[in-house]
Amino acid sequence: MGIRNELLEKILSEVAGQGGGAVLTVTGNLVDNTDPINPVVNQDPNLSVLLNSRASFGNTVATDGLLGPVSITGTGDEQLPPPTTPQPPTGGSYNGYVKVNGLTQITASGEVSVVGGELVIGANGAGDYRTPHAWLDISTSANNNVIGFVFGIEKFGTGLVSFSQRVTGERGAAQNLPSNISGGGFVEGLEPGDKVSLWAACSVDADLTLYDGNIGLEMACPLSMKV
Question: Among 35, 111, 130, 182, which is disulfide-ready with 53 (CB 3.0 to 4.6 Å)?
Fold first, then answer.
């Protein structure tokens, strides 16, 4: 925008007078030629995917025993080593782990949905993900029992499931008393059509009951933005 000559001349005169120098006379308007700021910024589609892709599944009724009682054969190992990967979705060797069926959608948006008790990645959802929250209230029929969970990731088009190698676990409370298990982490390299499921194991033979729980998955970085 233009600046009035009179105001600028007055300022320059005062500055020059203080220094004893000559007064600079302005003979034309000063114009700001920089491009105006566009108040509307075009939205990056990758940013939209990042900010909107999330879902959670679980159970929100604390007393109904969504899963259970389900009989699980104990692994005999309190470390609860995850299954060797990859394995078929059924009929494989799972090191005592059992898939947790019956989890229902709590929320879903963007490139993550809940289908058949699994988290499913959408057509534009390739990238790295994180679990911002993961907690379960669970009980077993055995004392001094260690309970653990891992994610199973069925890669689209392969018919095979890979398992997260970090177990989220807890030593159960006394027999049939609910214990809380919580954790979180990253699930990297997911691609469109991949399915994420929850698997459970116990260190000793027991009947397992799941009460309320909430497991979330949200995008951490789209594939197109990774460096």
Answer: 111
Q: Enumerate helices (H) and strands (E) in the chain, giving the number of each.
A: 2, 15
Percent helix, strand and coil across the chain, each to the nearest 5: 10, 45, 45
- The DSSP secondary structure of 97-154, one letter per residue, reads -EE----EEEEEETTEEEETTEEEE-TT--EEEEEEEEEEEEEESSSS-EEEEEEEEE
User: Can you tell me the mean pLDDT for 197-225?
Assistant: 93
pLDDT, tens digit, 9 for 90 and up, residues 25-50: 555 555 656 665 554 445 678 888 99
Q: What is the pTM of this model?
A: 0.78
Helix (H), strand (E) at residue 11: helix 5-19
Long-range contact list for 62-67, CB < 8 A, 24+ apart? 62/137, 62/211, 62/212, 63/211, 64/211, 65/209, 65/210, 65/211, 66/102, 66/103, 66/210, 66/211, 66/213, 67/100, 67/101, 67/102, 67/200, 67/208, 67/209, 67/210
Could you report the per-residue pLDDT of 50-80, keeping only the tens digit for each?
999 999 999 887 677 777 788 899 999 999 9
Q: Which fold has domain 45-225?
A: Jelly Rolls (2.60.120)
CATH 2.60.120.40 placement within the chain:
45-225
